[in-house]
Amino acid sequence: MKRLLNLGLLLLVIQLLLISLTACSSSDSLASTFSKEKVSEKSKIIVELLNDKNYEKVVDNFSTDLKAQLNADLLKTNLDPVLVKAGNFNEFKSETIVGKKLEDKSDYAVEVIVCSYENTNLTYTISFDENMDLIGLYVK
After folding, report:
1. Around 77, how many Cα atoms within 13 Å sit in the side-chain half-sphere?
2. Whose CA is closest to 82, among 37, 60, 41, 50?
């Protein structure tokens, strides 16, 4: 029951973050402050850290706001079952990077990465602010 409550809390926090991000303007061009290569590289590092279940290092990449809402234990509780069920990581299948703007007009980058695992595919939606701090993480 506690695990279900934690999962619900995690999904709620992530959903609120995504809603706040999607409530922003929807320009899809990546701002000049971002490099597609750097966004891709950092996103793949985040996925690799998750695959290694190194949740502390994932949290180290969080923005201050996200750190206040999520911690490594909550990530572990909710993502371990997903990753165990998925099986061993095979490859990065596809990736898409777009730019968005927050209500305060600041830019952020969003990468959607589809990854192949032994038993299924997982889709990661990873968002970064202009400092390349992780401001959004969704795994489906």
Report:
1. 16
2. 50
The one-digit pLDDT tens for each residue of the chain (140 residues) are 555 445 544 544 454 444 444 444 445 788 888 999 999 999 999 999 999 999 999 999 999 999 999 999 999 999 999 999 999 999 999 999 999 877 777 899 999 999 999 999 999 999 999 999 999 999 99
Q: What is the DSSP letter of 98?
A: E
- Sheet with 107-117, strands from edge to edge, namely 89-101, 107-117, 121-129, 134-139
Range of the domain at 99: 2-139
Q: How many domains does the chain have?
A: 1
Hey, is 119 helix, strand or coil? Answer: coil
Residue 84 near residue 117 (C-beta atoms within 8 A): no
Alpha carbons 10 and 44: distance in angstroms, whole number: 22
What is each CA distance from 96 to 28, 104, 113, 122, 133, in whole angstroms? 11, 24, 7, 14, 18
Which CATH number covers residue 46?
A: 3.10.450.590
Kindly report the pTM of this predicted structure. 0.79
